[in-house]
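Exam revision sheet. Question 4 asks you to relate a sequence to its structure. Input first:
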Amino acid sequence: MSKQAVIVVDIQKDYFPGGLWTLSGADAAADNAARIIAAAREAGDLVVHIRHEFTSPEAPFFRPGSEGAEIHPKVLNADGEPVVLKHFVNSFRETNLKEILDGSGVGNLIVVGSMSHMCVDGVTRAAADFGYEVTVIHDACATRDLEFQGKTIPAAQVHGAFMAALAFAYAKVVSTDEYLAQQAR
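Answer key, structure tokens:
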């Protein structure tokens, strides 16, 4: 049986109220992510934190070296938990994430984080393509309103559309409570 790891994607200060790129429901999603992380730590599972930094100081958010690019206190990495710095949507691109997972014998990934329509989607699809079994905890992920052809698409609809797409072919998509109940069996 292969091991599992929790991948904590970009739960960083800029996504929270007062940050440069506030997401809808960021606090509630981070609270659920913290519950998933706590359960993983208790079970002895690997927890890998992903931290996004753009390379340009003119970036709209996650500027290099900024406070907003720091991991949010609700989900801070514990001693010994790897933090993978990335500069692209896909957490595997030009990082050592796959090496960390494969070196630990991980075959199952639990994904939490932000943004549902970008980096959560990107890491989930890439992980599935690499052959990992992936579970996305939908209420431990957050996003924001988007605009398309002059119309605003509310964050809840953006989130729902991406979770539905991932559930169709890339991952099992469950709530925090469903996941924790399954782990307790």
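Marking note for examiners. The chain has one domain: 3-184.
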